[in-house]
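Dear H.,

Thanks for agreeing to be a second pair of eyes. The structure we're designing against is below in token form, covering all 78 positions.
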């Protein structure tokens, strides 16, 4: 088989409708599979434990200061 005949044979094979259909189908299949594999539902972001530990302490101080200032404001309004 000569090189020229080999080139024509390769061209005929690549331009065959069955090869084109199967190639397109395989590309779509690979794209869909990659999407499914990489898809992950992202969990909600968790806050740092350091700031969570500080919040109850600062919240207690804030509540106490609000009660003190709130009492003063209420007495001033009456």
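And this is the sequence the design step returned. I haven't edited it by hand at all.
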């Amino acid at each position: 088989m000569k090189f020229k005949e080999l080139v024509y044979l390769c061209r005929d094979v690549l331009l065959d409708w069955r090869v084109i259909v199967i190639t397109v189908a395989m590309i779509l299949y690979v794209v869909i599979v990659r999407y499914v594999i990489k898809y992950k539902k992202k969990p909600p972001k968790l806050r740092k434990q350091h700031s969570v530990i500080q919040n109850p302490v600062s919240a207690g101080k804030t509540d106490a200061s609000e009660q003190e200032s709130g009492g003063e404001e209420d007495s001033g309004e009456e």
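Two observations from my side: The longest helix spans residues 49-77. Helices lie at 3-14, 17-38, 49-77.

Warmly,
E.
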